[in-house]
Amino acid sequence: MYNKTSATLMLQTIMVLMDKQNSTGVTNFPGTFTDDAELERCYGAYGCFSKAYPWTENRPDNYFPVPPEAMAVRYPAFTRRNRKIPVLFEADNKEKIANANLDPRGPFYFISHGFLEGGHKLWIQNMADALLNLQGNEAATVIVVDWRGGSQPPYGQAVANIRLIGVMTAHLIHNIYEVLGLQHIDNFHFIGHSLGAHLGGYCGHALQKRFYLKLGRITGLDPAAPYFTKTVTLVRLDRSDAKYVDIIHSNAMPLYFSGFGITEPIGHVDFYPNGGSTQPGCKQASSPNGGSNDLSYQQVVKYVGCNHERSYEYFIESVAPSCPFMAVQCESYDAFLAGNCTSCDKHHYCIPMGYHSYNIYKRLQMGGLVDTNSNIALYALTGNNKPYCRVHYEVVMKVANTTASITHGPESGKLSITLVDRNNNKSDHMFLDEEQKFYKPGTIETKMVAVKDTGHPPIFVIVEWKYETNLFNPMTWRLLKSPSIYVEYMKLSSIEYNTDITVCPKRNKPVVANLPTIMKPKYCKFTK
Asked: Which residues are Ca(2+)-binding (predicted)?
């Protein structure tokens, strides 16, 4: 049985492996600076930081932030005019802001990395480019919060450092606000991954407490769980830190299962793609090589990091997505998969995941349909590789209860579908269930599936039956009968297109194993 000590040990072991890769040219800080009797330490204009409650709750250790000069936090700023060579800002240098020729129209984006990373990472560059390329963002400024000097092990020290860096970043935002003569900071959007998400929370809190300004938006990309789970809102990112807080959970599970992301809903809107814990494509792509006893740093990082990193991949894609990237409010992920939440209404709001979520949320807010003091949890399915965006269909399938079906008897296997639109474009091949399932005549199954968008709703469906014999399961034995299943009908309801289509096999014929069967609406007239 895992406990807090073993979970912490696993985290520290992973961090030591990671540290070996990140040690060159980076300052590592001591775990403590004075004895444990000191409960508060001050850092000039940035104020004082306590080590007393609530900073002791659910944390195996506790640190003060290291001084600002030791972390050397940098703020490179990019615009469409200077994509390659940024202007380097400092938290309290108004002169550099005044000389940077920033467009006061904005919007202004702040991007923060997490533990063991830095502002030079490729994903940050990709995100900055996506935001600057967005139509209508001619006046945009992207500022990277590069705190690599404070993001190194031990983990508890990095956790403490983001408290100070959050305040420093609040000073920078306030200075931009003053130098540009802005009326508000509604179009300031902080985007943080892992520890960087909580850094954004500290920034938003400091802006309100010190300068009476409220950030327009904070996006938390799989906010870190270790040291933040089950803490009070002061300690972590929460929806009071900005006018709109949206979260993408991609690795929300216990640390001893290699989970780094927080499970709790902490924003106005919390997205849980694929359930929010593991993401398609990560297990296969990230599992260490079973044929080798040498578990390299790259293998370990890839194994534990794929799900955690997928959150920022989703967000980058959501800026200019290939399809609506829709997520649906539902009671749980299981209820979503069961097809219980397929209509967009006042009981199940539909909000696009990622960048464009605020536009829909504001409409709901203006219509008095959402309470900004409460949370909306939404679910979506994605693909296992880029582009990740998929469109969702509720599939209701009935196994025929006809004489032929009853005579044939129950079947065990897997059904797959391929959707075909009016331009004869085909979706990807999608199984209704990953494992073989037992189907009896008269059975009605309801499933949620997601496929690549072809640009139009389907007009017919190609159905296939995959049958595998299991020597230990007599129900799979077929000696005299061909492996097949009698499907009476399939009804597909699209969330994104808001359309329904019911298709049937021609003349009630069965779907035979390894033989694609075309089902069309016009064939349903033969169904009895």
From this structure: 236, 238, 241
What range defines the domain where residue 237 resides? Answer: 4-322+374-380
Q: List the one residue out of 498, 501, 505 whose CA is nearest residue 519.
A: 505
Which residue among 189, 308, 348, 392 is the active-site one?
308
Residue 148 annotated in ligand binding? no
Is residue 276 domain-shared with residue 412, that is, in the same domain?
A: no
Specify the CATH number for the domain of residue 27.
3.40.50.1820
- Name which of 410, 398, 408, 401 is nearest 473 in CA terms: 410
Domain CATH for 481: 2.60.60.20
236 is in an annotated binding site: yes
Please write the tens of the pLDDT for every residue from 196-215: 999 999 999 999 999 999 99
Is 268 known to be catalytic?
no
The answer to whether 103 is a known ligand-binding residue is no
- Please, what sign has the CA dihedral across residues 499, 500, 504, 506? negative
Main-chain dihedrals φ then ψ at residue 40, nearest 5 degrees = -150, 140
Q: Which of 112, 151, 194, 412 is catalytic?
A: 194
The residue annotated as part of the active site, out of 112, 189, 222, 412, is: 222
What local confidence, expressed as pLDDT, does residue 168 receive?
98
465-485: pLDDT as tens digits: 988 665 555 555 554 456 889
